[in-house]
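[PROTEIN RECORD]
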Amino acid sequence: MARMTKKERTAKDPVPCAMTVSYAPTGRAKCRRCGDEIEKGSIRLGYPFRWRSNEDPHSNYLHPECYVPEVFGIKEKELRTKIFGFEALNNTERAQLWKKMRSRGKEASASSESKAAADAFSKGAVGPAVDIASLPAVEAPAQLLVPMLPFQREGLAWMCNQESSGVGGGILADEMGMGKTIQAISLLLARRQKAPCLVVVPMAAVLQWVSEIERFTQPGTLRVTVYHGVQKARTATEFRKSDVVITTYQTLETEYRREMNKSRVTCKWCGKLFQPDKLKVHQRYFCGPDAQRTAKQQRTEKKFQDAAKKAMANMGITSGGASSSSSSAYSPPTISNIYKDFMKEAGVEIKAKGYWGIKKEVQERLQG
């Protein structure tokens, strides 16, 4: 593409146009039509876009193949006047651009791929191919004490169909108050399993689930176990005797972290615990004598240090007499560093790092 003249660069009057054409200077931009990245050095089309009427517009970009004539309505004879930058292209580039704009190649391939993905997804999951009305009717379980409304029976039929499919599940997204809990309980009754069903709910909904199972089912139909708080001492044997195990998100997260902590290993340089894959990254870039940070990490750290030093200067805080040129002596005025400075003035050297590490070391010294 030919360079713009100085006169063109310094022109103050805006050029009226519908789109722009240029070579992509980087590969970071994505096409707003297909979502694919626009390769560096390739020709791209741009158009103005704004979220609100009172905001300045910014440019969105397209592949020439993703151009939609019905949206922009640019004809061949209007290319020079409605596409800014078209004049800077040579004749070959102009012809190639117009050919791509008319090809709809990207649109056709994207449409075929989207249709294939939708067909594959709809065969066993939620999608337009699943016609709820055509599903075989499922009667409400006899153990259910309340009658089900027609749309709730349709939901039960859909859930049973999902459970039988290769997907093995789905999302019941009825609005609040439409009886999702009743439908879920009816599914538990209609498709009894040997193993207990795990129900994960917010803590405020635990008692609601227990009470609704007792209220909507015949006594003794579903044996319920609550795994939360003091009741977490239950064993796996007790779980196997239950039909439904109800727990909370917080309990599940705590149990998950406890199990993950079993596989964590200690860094020999700082004493912190990491997963094995995370420990490699930690020792490669951050900790130990062989650690070496990348140029980007060094720039990020320098920006943080510069910002902290500027804030310290504005607030009149000194860095303990350390030289401003000594990056190794730099320490931001965090609670941990301030506490270490106080202890150092008292003649006690704290070697631990971080708030909890310092607290642990101080407690051990006091107990010793």
Notes: The longest helix spans residues 295-314. The chain has a mean pLDDT of 80.
